[in-house]
Amino acid sequence: MQDGVAGSKTVSFTRMDLGTREDRDIIATFHESELTLAAEHCLSLLKKLRSPPGRAPWRVDRFTHSLQTATRAFRDGADEELTVVALLHDIGDAVSLENHAFVSAEILRPYISDRNYWLVRHHGLFQTRYYGKAAIHAEDRRAPFFDHPYFAATEKFCRDWDQMSFDPDYDTLSLDFFEPFVRSVLARPVYSESALFDSLHSE
Ligand SMILES: [Fe+2]
Ligand SMILES: [Fe+2]
Predict the structure, then answer these.
(1) CA of 187 to the centre of ligand 1 (A)
(2) How far is the CA of 123 from the centre of ligand 1 (A)?
(3) Hey, which bits of the chain come out as E strands?
(4) How far is the CA of 155 from the centre of ligand 1 (A)?
(5) N or C: which end of the chain has fewer CB atoms below 10 A?
């Protein structure tokens, strides 16, 4: 074992199954310090949703869309966690356009309720209800979830906040306003590894 470039200890192994108990402790310490960076990582992803003027097809870029969604949620009485969910619901776009809702949901999952996780995971599908005139004649893709206990919360999120938030004239709050919310929610103790793995058994 030796000191790493940043002064941290370095493990002895080159393959995991040769790791020692001391190696495990070194990694655990590193893991703990990395977890404190969750808010920074999420804010960094959020800022990647900025687009130069004229680059994106919407009248506001996805960064402003996210701020506006959070602003509407906050002004509508959403609590701290749901406001953060509104702010970060599209961060998956920064790495995967094809399945952004799933990526966003999994990033936030350790810090948010089951309801809010379900909401973020399904918001992309629920948003198809609002694809303008074309959606009037399309099948309602939310139908399989009409009886789901989280349907109403997800419908409200999309109807009142998400699909509404493409307006350049709306009085959108700045990121400075929401940053303390993000740091608060993402500083929570995360689910244990076993809890996350246990969740696989219920799928
Ligand atoms: Fe989205
Ligand atoms: Fe959105």
Answers:
(1) 24
(2) 6
(3) 2-3, 9-10
(4) 13
(5) C
